[in-house]
Write a structure and sequence with these properties.
Number of helices: 7
Number of strands: 4
Helix content: over 70%
Largest sheet: 2 strands, antiparallel
Radius of gyration: 19 Å
Shape: globular
Strand content: 5-15%
Strand order of the largest sheet: 1-2
Oligomer: single chain
């Protein structure tokens, strides 16, 4: 958690500084057009922190700081989300950074520029929009009652993550956004269903 928190704060501070000053994070371990930007290095550290969290999530029931109970099947789904994030955002992004002969830094005349532009859109939609929404929903599923409700929502979440993970690769490599679109639409559906079930449970109480 400390690794993840430190990386999150560092990355936020770096991006705010870049936005205000126009500073461009330097490339580390550069070789020709390839290299690892400083902000991506921080993202890798964030990924390492998330990876360290997954064993406990896979095998334990947990309580959050408000003593709210999260059973193992929810924690396992959260670990699946974290692993999908690491693969689609961190690992695929790292691969692109060291194959810029093809991807061309998403500019210029390199043959893979459309692929790099597709990755930029895909990982922003999935990694930085869909994933946080799913985590927030899962961490509040203890507010619902009944195994059928939880099973329905967890099933939708797994479909979203599977489509989003596969979609990040298919949009980047095949320039087909259909799976990412499915992931986004299913996320909207999940939020509506969760809100409906939550309001119905509150009415019953």
């Amino acid at each position: 958690m400390y690794i993840t928190l430190t990386a999150t704060v560092a990355q936020t501070a770096l991006y705010q500084y870049c936005a205000c000053t126009g500073y461009e994070p330097p490339d580390l371990f550069a070789s020709g057009p390839n290299g690892l930007p400083l902000d991506d290095l921080i993202l890798i550290i964030l990924g390492v922190g998330l990876l360290f969290l997954t064993p406990a999530l896979l095998f334990r029931n947990t309580k959050d700081i408000n003593a709210r109970y999260h059973p193992k099947h929810i924690n396992r789904t959260i670990s699946f989300i974290l692993l999908a994030y690491i693969i689609s955002v961190v690992a695929l992004g790292l691969y692109i950074e060291f194959h810029e002969q093809f991807f061309g830094h998403a500019e210029g005349n390199a043959s893979g520029v459309p692929n790099d532009l597709a990755y930029i859109r895909a990982h922003l939609l999935f990694g930085f929009m869909v994933v946080p929404l799913l985590l927030g929903t899962l961490l509040n599923m203890d507010l619902l009652k009944g195994k059928k409700q939880l099973s329905l929502l967890l099933g939708i979440v797994i479909l979203i993550i599977t489509a989003g993970l596969a979609g990040t690769f298919t949009w980047t490599l095949l320039l087909s956004p259909i799976l990412i679109e499915i992931s986004v639409y299913l996320t909207a559906l999940l939020l509506f269903v969760f809100a409906f079930l939550l309001m119905r449970n509150l009415d019953k109480n």
